[in-house]
Amino acid sequence: MKIQGLLQKVELFRGLTEEELTQIANICKEERFQEGEVFAKEGEMGDTFCVIKDGLMKVEINQMPDLQPHVIVHLGTGQLIGEMSLVDRGVRSATVRAIQTPTDILVIHHDEFHDLCEKNNRIGYVVMRNMAADLSFKLRHRSLSEQGR
Amino acid sequence: MPTYKISYVVPDKKHPGGIINLDYCPVRGETLEIGGVTYAIQEVIELMPPQGLFHYLHVTCETLEE
User: Fold this and answer.
1) CATH number for the A3-147 domain, one of 3.30.70.60, 2.60.120.10, 3.40.50.1370, 2.40.50.1020?
2) Contacts of residue A99 in chain B, CB cutoff 8 Å?
3) ipTM for the complex?
4) Residue A125's pLDDT is what?
5) What angle do CA A145, B32, A14 make, to 5 degrees?
């Protein structure tokens, strides 16, 4: 599937025109991960976010240094990773690693994305609106998951 | 073509649950295969109202095969 076709199925880009999706596709870089490989490490600075093209990743946090990491969610095709540091420029809030081989992702560099949004404010508005909806969905999932239902 | 954004939980195991996109609507009583694991779908609810071609669902699953 062409990158534009995949991007149409990603909620983050819902509402963008074909031309705008092409502009996003132009700053995407495809990367392939094997099971166990890490995309983001908790506490480190991150300058990219990604969309899972195909595969599965787990998000884990270290609650105590001498304990096993706590896995909080699995994320599959179409899901966003690393978007928090795009918004707040803070460190990675969790470690994200592939749990399926191969896991293919589309990586977008923060600076390139910000440059694109500066040139086309509509892309910036639509993507930020959708990102808020994605965070809302994740919070709803987390809430139900903690209730075990 | 619609996209179904799925929040899923597996109450019968110490599974963290997850979020995936599907290009079909999951239905109670059918199975769902995620990462090589097959789950039986026990319940499907709408988590948020649809927006355009995107539907937001929450699915409760039971593990069938690992």
Assistant:
1) 2.60.120.10
2) 35
3) 0.90
4) 94
5) 70
